[in-house]
Amino acid sequence: MNKKLFYYELQNKILIANKKYPFEDVSEDFASSYEGSLFALNSLDPKKSRRSFCVTNPQNLFIKEENLDLLKDNSTENINLPDWVMEHINNRNITSVNTSYPSWKEVLSSGFPIVTKGNENSNKWHITVVGLGDVGGTLITGLRLLGGDCISRINIFDKDENKMKRWEYECNQILSPSFEQSYPVVVPIKEDDLFNCDMFVFCVSVGVPEVGKEDVDVRLAQFQGNSKIISYYSKLSRINNFKGIFAVVSDPVDLLCKTVFDESNKDSSDTYDFNGLSPEQIRGYGLGVMNARASYYASQNKEHIHFLKNGRVFGPHGEGLIVADSIENYNDEISNYLTDKTKKANLEVRSIGFKPYVAPALSSGSLSLISTIKGDWHYSATFLGGAFMGCRNRLTSSGIELETHNFIPDSLFNNLQKTYNNLL
C-alpha cells in the first residue's frame, strides 16, 4: 500500500505532505498531471534545519531531523510512494520546504537561488566581492579570466579606495588578443550597492599570522577579528532583504557561515525571528583547495593515485579535515596520510617565506564559485542540521543537492561524525 499523502494547490504550485495543512485540497490525479516542480512540506526547528533543499531519495522527502545521515543514500530502503512521485524524486524535481520559516512561501514563488541582477535576457550573474587583499585580488582575477560565460559584472569594494582603483585598472586590462572571449566588467561600488547582486563574496581577513609565526591554528586565529566584521555585513544583508547567495571565503569559513546565519536572523532585541538569510543562501568556500592539495600529494605516489578519481574530502579548511582516499574501498592508513599532508600543506609554503593564498583564492574561490553558478558539483560548506559542513554538493533548480553515498564505512563515518559534532 502506498504511503498516505495529502495534495494541495497554493500559488498555482502543487504541494505534497504527510499530514493535513490548511490549504486547498486537490486529488492525486490532479497532482500527478502537474508538469512543474513539486514541493514537499515539512515543519522542523529552523535553528537546525534548512528552509529548502533538493529531495534526492524517498527518505528525505519528509525528514524528522537533519543530521549527517543525509550524506547516505538510503533509496533502496522500502518506502512505498506512488510511482509518479518517485519519478519526480529521481528527476530532482521536488523541493523540500520547511514551513517553520516565516518566509517559506518565497520558495514557491521565486525558487532558489533568486537571480535578479543579471543582464536582461541573460542568466549571467552579478557578483560583489568585498575585501581586496591577497585573496580577494587573486579571486577576482580568476573570475575575470574564467567567468565570462556565467558572470556579467564583478562589483568590488574595499575600505581602501586605492585598492579598488588598482583592481579596476588591473582586471579590466586583462584581455585576450583575439577579442573573441567575453569578460565580466569589474566595477568599484559604494557600500550602499553591496547587495545589489546575485552573489556576495566575503574576502575580508584580519589577524592572519605573519610568516614564521604559525604556533597556532592560523584559521582559528582569524575567527575573532573576522567574525566581528562579517557580523556587520550579515546584518546589512538583512536590512537590504538580500535574496542571493552569501559566500564566505575568509577563514574559518564554517564558523563564519554560522555567524552569518545567526546574526542575520536576529531582530533589534537580539532575538531570533528567522527573517534574515535562509541557511541555503549561506555557503563557505574553503574545501576546494583541500581537495586540490590532497590530489597534489596523491599524484606523487602510485599507491595513492586512485584518490584523484575516487577520493573525497569533508569538513573544515583546517583542523577537523577528513580526506578519504576512496569511499567504496576506504583505506584508513592512506586516508590518514593524505589528511595529514593536506592539513600541513599551507605550512610548507610558509616555511619558504610566503603566504599560501594563491591556490585557496583560485581553487576554493574563483573555480568553486563558478561551479556553484553553473550548477556543477564542487566542494563547499553548506548548512546541515545546525552546522556548516564541507562536502561535495551542487546547486539545482530544486535547491542544494548533497552528494550521497550508497555505503560509507563505519570508521570513516565515525570520523565524519566527530568533525560534524565539533562544528555544531
UniProtKB/TrEMBL annotation:
**Alphabetically ordered keywords of this record:** Oxidoreductase
Q: Does the keyword Oxidoreductase apply?
A: yes
GO BP: lactate metabolic process
Q: Does the keyword Oxidoreductase apply?
A: yes
Q: Which GO terms describe its molecular function?
A: L-lactate dehydrogenase (NAD+) activity
Q: What is its EC number?
A: 1.1.1.27
Q: What class of enzyme is it?
A: oxidoreductase
For this protein, the record's PANTHER family field holds:
L-2-HYDROXYCARBOXYLATE DEHYDROGENASE (NAD(P)(+)), L-LACTATE DEHYDROGENASE
In Swiss-Prot or TrEMBL terms, this protein is called L-lactate dehydrogenase
Q: According to the entry, what is the taxonomic lineage of the organism?
A: Bacteria, Bacillati, Bacillota, Clostridia, Eubacteriales
Q: What gene does the UniProt entry assign to this protein?
A: ldh_3
